[in-house]
Amino acid sequence: MSSSLALLVLLAAASAPILAVGVSPAVNPRVLPAAASSNDTLQRGIVATNQTANSVTSTLHIISDLVRDLNTCTGYYTTMAETVAAALDDLHAGRVVNATDKLNDALGAPSDCDILLSGVGVIGKVDRNPIRKENGENEKLVKLAINILNPPRS
Fold this sequence. Notes:
Layout: H1 2-15, H2 17-21, H3 36-92, H4 96-106, H5 108-118, H6 132-149
Helix pairs in contact: 1-3, 3-4, 3-5, 4-6, 5-6
C-alpha cells in the first residue's frame, strides 16, 4: 500500500504545474544583489529537480508499458504451456500428428512476445525486452521438437 502511495505522490509531483513551469511562484525574481547567489542556486536546484521529475515520470511510463506487455506475454506463455502439455499427452498416447499440430500452434508465443516487448511497429516505443534470450530458446526448442517428430523431407 505504501508503494502505491509513493507512486501516487511521485506522479502528482511530476505533473504539478509548479514543475511544468520550472520556476516556483514562491521565488521572487526581484532579489537584492546580495541574495543573487542563493537565488541562482535555488533556480539551478529547481531546474535540476524539474528534470528529475520529468525523468522519473518517463521511467514510470516505460515501467507501466513493460508491466502491461509482460502481463500479455504471461498470457501467451500460459497458453503455450497448456498447448505443449496437451502435445505431451498426445505423444504419450501415440498421437504424433496431433502432437505436432499442437506444437506448431505453440510456436508463435515466443515471437509474439518478442514483437510486443520490442515495440515493433509502435512509434515512440522503447525496446525493453528482458526475456529476448528466453523467447529465442523456447522458439528453438519447439522447432526442435517439431523437426524430431516430423523431420523435413529432402
